[in-house]
Amino acid sequence: MTTSLRTRARTRFPSAVLVATGLAAGFGIAQGTGVRALGGAVFAAGGLAAGWLWVQRRGWAVALGLGGLYIGAFVLAHVLAIGAGWPAWLAVGLVTLAAAGTTAVVADRP
Description:
Elements: H1 5-9, H2 15-33, H3 36-58, H4 60-83, H5 88-106
Helix pairs in contact: 2-3, 2-5, 3-4, 4-5
């Protein structure tokens, strides 16, 4: 018995895990190694993988909205850390929780 690509994409691997990993691990790798491009690559990989699942599960409109949220969370973490003077890990943690939580509700529900 074969399964379609869409059926396999509906497996319950939560895309919120990819969002959380892309944001938090991307930041941690960039800070730990001092190579911002390496952290950016992790951020991009997490976003692209999550985006693929969003398109398969919910369509392009939801995928674009969640992609905007993902990038917006990245920007907001910088604004909070640099502009507002928050500790960087606190800013990243806050936006990661918000983005992953929203993703879980919007894209990962059955």
